[in-house]
Amino acid sequence: MFVDIAKITLKAGDGGNGAVSFHREKYVAAGGPDGGDGGRGGNVVLQVDDHLSTLADFRYKRKYVAENGQNGRASNCSGKSAPDLCLKVPRGTLVKDLATGALLADMSDDAPVILAKGGRGGFGNQHFATPTRQCPRFAKPGTPGPVLEVQLELKLLADVGLIGFPNVGKSTLISVVSEAKPKIANYHFTTLVPTLGVVRLGEGSSFVMADIPGLIEGAGEGIGLGHAFLRHVERCRLLVHLVDVSGSEGRDPCADFDVINRELERFNPELATRPQLVAGSKCDLCDETKVAQFKSFVENQGYAFFPIIAPITEGTADLIKATAAKLAALPPVKRYEADPVPQTEMVGSKQAFTLTVREGVYMIEAPWLLKIMETVDADDYESLQYFQRVLRKSGIIDALQEKGIQDGDTVSIYDIEFDYVP
User: For the residues 218-241, what does the mean pLDDT come to?
Assistant: First the structure.
C-alpha cells in the first residue's frame, strides 16, 4: 500500500524529578542534603531509512511516546536518562506542524533530526543548600516533554519526472531505460503509485527517474489521481513530458500538451517554469506528417522534441542523452529549509496560565505548576519560600495584583487554597 501522507502525535519524555533526601550514616552527624537529580526524558528523533518507500507504517499507529527520565535518588544518585525514540521515515519526507503549518524538517539526507526534545531532569535538594538554608526540604520537578501533532508528507527525491496523460507510455519508457518493473497494460491508470527507476549512463554516472501516475484535466483541483501525486513532481529538476502524437485515444496531441502544463501551473506556479523535454510516443501508429506537425508546435514554444517508440527502444537513447546533458546544467534536487520554531520557555520563567475571579476567589490554572506543587512541603518554611519565588517569577503574583487582590483574599490553585499576604 502506497501511503504518502500521515498525521501522527509525538510526545517527548518527561524529565525525572529531583529527590529530597538527607545523608544518614552512623557516626556522621548532620550529613546534609544528598538528593540526586532527575534524568532527562527521551527525545523523539526522525531518521531516514532507504529501505522504506511509503509512510504505511504510520497509517495504523498514530501516537508515539518517548520514555520518561527516572527520578533522582538518595546518596547524590542521579536518575537514568531515557533512551531516544527513533522513528524511521523514507527519504524525501517533509515534517509539518499541524497547528501552524510550519515546516519542521526535510528528511532528505542521512542526518537525524530531533523533533521533540525530552524534558530536563529536576535538581535534587543538594543544589539548594546554602549557609543559611542547610536543610532544604524541596527539589525541582522535571520539565514535561512537549507534545507535537505533525503531518508527514512524502515528496519523492527524483531528478526527472515523467508526466503526461494516462496510457501514453510512461511506464513502458521507464521500464526500458531503467531497471524499474512497473505494471504495463493498455488501459488508463495502470500505474496507481509513483515508480522510481535509476537510469545508468555508465560507471559513476546515473540519475533517478520517477513515473508519475497519469494526469488528466482538472488534476490540479483533485480530479483523478493527479492531485494525489502532483506533489512528487515538485522536487524534480527536469520534466519529461510524454504525449501520444498518434491521437490513439481520440485526443489532439497539442491540446494534451497544453492541458498538462496548465494543470501543473494550477497546482504550483513554480512547476510551469520547470525545464521540460517533450517526447512523442506511439510514433509507429501515425504517419510522419502528424509527428512533424506536433514537433513544429512544440519547438515553436521553445521545447526540444524527441520522437520515440519505447517498446523497441527507438529514439530512447537520444532522449536519455539529452536528459543527462540538461541535468548537468541544473541545480541539485530541491531541498526545503525548515521554518524557525521559537523555543518554548521552561519552568522558572514566565509560563502560560489563566486567572479567573469567581465570587471573590482568585482561581489560577497552570498545568506546568502541578509538578512543582507536588514537591512543595506546606509545613516547611523554606519550601514555601521556594514556591512563592516560582509564583512571582512566573508572573502570577503580578497578575493577581493587576486584578486588584487584597490582603486576606482567597487564592485557589487546583486543590490548594490559601489567603493572599502581600
Answer: 66
Rg (CA), the chain: 32
Is residue 345 over pLDDT 70? no
Q: Which amino acid type is present at position 227? A: H
Please give the CATH topology (third level) of the domain spanning 160-328: Rossmann fold (3.40.50)
Q: Which uninterrupted H or E stretch holds 279?
A: strand 276-281
95 Cα distance to chain centroid = 1
Q: Which helix (H) or strand (E) holds 260?
A: helix 253-267
Cβ(180)–Cβ(191) below 8 Å? no
CA proximity to 320, closest of 192, 146, 201, 143 = 201
Long-range pairs of 365-372 with CB within 8 A, sequence gap ≥ 24: 365/414, 366/394, 366/396, 366/413, 368/143, 368/144, 369/394, 369/413, 370/414, 371/17, 371/141, 371/142, 371/144, 371/347, 372/140, 372/141, 372/347
pTM: 0.67
Model pLDDT for residues 291-315, shown as the tens digit of each residue: 899 999 999 999 999 999 988 889 9
User: What's the CATH number of domain 354-419, 3.30.300.350, 3.30.565.10, 3.90.226.10, 3.30.420.40?
Assistant: 3.30.300.350
The answer to whether residues 280 and 206 touch, using CB atoms and an 8 Å cutoff, is no
DSSP 315-351: THHHHHHHHHHHHHTSPPSP-PPPPP-PPPP-BTB--
Where is average pLDDT lowest: 185-194, 251-260, 363-372? 185-194
Q: Position 48: which residue type?
A: V
Q: Which superfamily is assigned to 1-155 in CATH?
A: GTP1/OBG domain (2.70.210.12)
Between CA 150 and CA 341 the distance in angstroms is: 14
3-state secondary structure 48-83: ECCCCCCCHHHCCCCEEECCCCCCCECCCECCCCCC
